[in-house]
Amino acid sequence: MAELAPPTGAPANVVVLLLDSLNRHMVGAYGSTEFDTPNLDRLAARSLRFQHHFAGSLPCMPARHDILCGALDFLWRPWGSIELWEEPVTVPLRSAGVVTKLVTDHPHLFEVGGENYHTDFTGWDYERGHESDPWRTRPDPSWVGAPSFGRPSMPYETSRGWFRGEDDFPGPRTMAAAARWLEEEAPDDAPFFLFVDEFDPHEPFDTPEPYASMYDPEWEGPHLIWPPYAKAVLERGVLTPEQARQIRANYGAKLTMIDAWLGRVLDVLDRRGLWESTAVVLCTDHGHYLGERDIWGKPGVPLYEPMVHIPLFVAWPGQEPRDVNALTTSVDLHATILDVFGSTAEHRTHGTSLVPLIDGGATEVRDHVLAGVWGREVHLVTKDRKYCRAPSGANEPLSVWSNRWSTMPVVGYPQLKMPPPDDRAVLDKMPGSRIPVIRQPFGAGDALPFWAYGQFDGNHLYALAEDPTEQEDKAGESGEKEAADQLREALLAVEAPDDQLVRLGLV
Known about the structure:
Layout: E1 13-19, H1 38-44, E2 48-54, E3 57-58, H2 60-69, H3 90-95, E4 99-104, E5 123-126, H4 156-159, H5 170-184, E6 192-198, E7 230-231, H6 241-271, E8 278-283, E9 289-290, E10 295-297, H7 305-308, E11 313-315, E12 322-329, H8 331-340, H9 355-358, E13 369-373, E14 378-381, E15 386-389, E16 398-402, E17 426-429, E18 436-442, E19 460-462, H10 479-493, H11 498-503
Parallel strand pairs: 1-6, 1-8, 2-12, 3-13, 4-5, 4-6
Antiparallel strand pairs: 2-11, 7-10, 8-11, 9-10, 13-14, 14-15, 15-19, 16-18, 17-18
Helix pairs in contact: 1-6, 2-8, 5-6
């Protein structure tokens, strides 16, 4: 592998703190007063605060693929593991002598569809018991009155009774383990990369007191911790206004709890004086709808701002805190990590290092972002506008390109698996690779991977610069042709599958 000299003045180490489903518009440093986030704000106060940072591939595992592999995958495949033609960032870092550590409670990293993201870290910790993690086989029989929250199909219902106090919850345990590693194991004689993949504030929005009643003290009865994944929720009576307020409040409770435990990691960085040698990145995979546009969860809808416009803080040695107004996206984090350690990737990537923005060598590094979920709309985002392109007719042709052939299991619905290749499959090549890959086409009536489902409601075009809350849809007006042409050129630039251009009506 070709190696590069580290850039002059680069940090010796990198810490990435990923909080899952962290809503930018609910963080104090981005102007929110709804929930308390003192430690996020504390980190932001010493960081470069990126104002136009967007997700690329969604949801959870595709977003991690963006960060750890540096390549958009939503145009080629749904949720899946690392493919044969690519390597995670930990592989070139190992060649560069970097000690890499993963600390996480993210269950999807340890099930089919996420099988091999953790294996190339020098070391990894998995704190058990969150959401779909099959940790326990029965509830704790010694705790009479253990809480139940109405989702018996979820493994969390079995695990929950084993959490007695705040420090037993997976999120607090993850942050405590990360702080302990920085305090006791982070090397002094070698560079290190710490990746903290924290599943909070993702649902279930379950917290102990005092958090549980912090933002909805009048609520009586069991707390509502599982949001629906649906649109028109209040309009259709799926939730009452009181129930909607309760779920949103419980997201805030989870956010404030994990913020408190984030403070322990920041405390260790303070005590060890690591800010002088370490870049600290706070990011997320995507947002989470909590009633905006009467949408909840992550249903099959366009990627509006609450979902795709995400927070990014970067505390960098020698750099004063300031706002960065350049357009950036998640694959750029991969390129930045490689840049810090003087390494390079062997496979085709789509990111651009943020170092020139950080050290003042550039004011922009890209003019657009591609974003989406496999099988759904494709979005082109610039600083001025967002164009959401839906299929022009039936959602076909559509292919999966993969040699791993696994995706997220859906608890309670074991029949919802990745449809296997059939006699329509052919061998093809990924851009930048000579490794043959299975290309499986799907057509009308075929079963599709889980996240591809949902109705389409046409194209959307928003002038973000003047309409940041996306109230005025300009699709169908004269500016749409220019946006469509720009999207087509962006897809061609990454050598997107030809069936994407066909199904979107861009040929």
